[in-house]
Amino acid sequence: MDLLKRYIPVLFLLALVVAVQLVTHFTETTYYLTQLTMSAYYSVVVIGLCVLMGYCGQISLGHAGFFAIGGYLAGALTTHNLMSFRDHGLVAVLDRIGLLVAGKDLYGGDLLTVEPWAACITAVLTAGLIAMAIGGPVLKLKGHYLAMATLGFGIIIFRIALASAYFGEADGISEVPAFRLLPGIDISGSFGARILNYYIAWVVVIVAIILLLNLIHSRVGRALRAIHGAEEAANAMGVNTSRYKLYIFVLSAVFAALAGVLVTHYNGGIGPSEAGIMKSVRYVAIVAVGGMANIWGALIMGVVLNFLSLRGVFGSYDDAVFGVILIVIMLFAPQGILKINPWQQLKSFLPLFAEQSGEETPE
Amino acid sequence: MALLEIQNLNRRFGGLHAVNNVSFNVEQGMIKAVIGPNGAGKTTLFNLIAGNLPANSGKIFFDNARINGRKPYQIAERGVSRTYQNIKLFHGMTALENVMVGRHIRSRAGFMAGMLNLPWTWPEEREVREKAMEYLDLLGAADCADTEIGNLSFGQQRGVEFARALAMEPTLLLLDEPAAGLNIYETAEIGRLISKIRDSGITILLVEHDMSLVMDISDEIVVLSFGEKIAEDLPHKIQQNEEVIRIYLGDEG
Question: CATH code for B1-79+171-253?
Answer without folding.
Answer: 3.40.50.300
